[in-house]
Every structure is written in C-alpha cells, then in structure tokens.
Design a protein that fits this description.
heterodimer, A: about 120 residues, mainly beta, 7-stranded mixed β-sheet, 4-stranded antiparallel β-sheet, about 55% strand, globular, B: about 110 residues
Chain lengths: ~120, ~110
Amino acid sequence: QVQLQESGPGLVKPSQTLSLTCTVSGGSISGYYWSWIRQHPGKGLEWIGHIYYSGITYYNPSLKSRLTMSVDTSKNHFSLNLSSVTAADTAVYFCARAQLSVWDYWGQGTPVTVSS
Amino acid sequence: EVVMTQSPGTLSVSPGERATLSCRASQSISDNLAWYQQKPGQAPRLLIYGASTRATGIPARFSGSGSGTEFTLTISSLQSADFAVYYCQQYDDWVTFGGGTKVEIK
C-alpha cells in the first residue's frame, strides 16, 4: 500500500520560502507523476503542480513565478518550494500521486501558516 | 481557466435516500472529470474518474455520468459514511476544482 507523508515547518514568515517534502513509502516514486494540492481554511482545493519522477514539472500558472518542485528518486521523495509567501498561502498542503491528473493516493496533509 | 460550478452548495438527505450532485464546466471538458469525497480532517478520496469510472474499492452505490459541460454524481441509498463534502475536478485543461457540495444528514 502506497503511503505519502508530508513534512516541513508549520509556520513561515511573510516574504520567506515555504519548503515541504513528501516521502513516499510502500512503492517506488518512479513511473508516476507526483503533485501538491492545497486547501485554504474552510475552502476548496487548489492544484499547485505536478512533477514526474524524471523531473519534468507542470505548475499552476497562478503560482508558477514563485514555485519550484524537485524530486529525489534515491530518497523516494519530492519537494515543494514556494517563495515570497503571504497570508494568502496559509493552507493545508497535501501531496498526492497522480495518474492522468487524478489523484489516487494522498498524504494526510500538513497545515502551514504564514505569519510573523 | 475552466471554471467548475457545483450545485447545490449543501444537500440535506436522509440515510437510505438517493443523492444527486451536479457539476458544470465553463467549457467542454469531454469526460475528463473526477469526483472526490472529503471528510473533516482527512485528505480527499478519489471516487470517480473519466466521468463515470469508479476508482478501486469504491462501492457501486457511487455512480458518475455526463460529458462535455454537465456532470452528475449519484449516491444511491446513502450510508452514514457518505455524509461528507464532494468535489468535482476537471483535468482537460490544466486542473481546476469545483467549490464542493456538502452532503448532510436531514
């Protein structure tokens, strides 16, 4: 059974960079797309981006200028860096495995608050 | 951007009854539509993809239909575990989600 676990700081200061890692267990990161999705408090879902195990990325156009995703197949994990954060980036961040842009395995989500 | 509109915002249903949830796309997305169920404090769970194909392990009481711009998720005979928020998601043109429909106990 594939499992995903997000990790990273729960509090980030405005203007700084939000960095999260998703570790995949129970299966290989190779051969799949991997994604970040976020959910603002009490709101719906927002796709952040995909990364293929080879490193090819697809970013939400609205976040593209601030977003970097990377993958480390040797550690079976992938990462998210979102720069110049504001309070609007406060959300629960989920990592997930994508197949044809639908997500069949998800992490439990990690809350991130942007505040000084 | 493809805008996804779900209706109603909240649906009150008694256990054992049928629930019909709607999702409309602002432009044709063929059958590139998925449905997810989310319970409080949990990640979404994939129910349906390709507008009508149930994901692995999803009970037959969940069914999806539609194509183009109009889609429906039907839950026949609601169980207590089915009270949750449901989201539609298009993946025809990048990815966007609907705002969700909350299915609550009547």
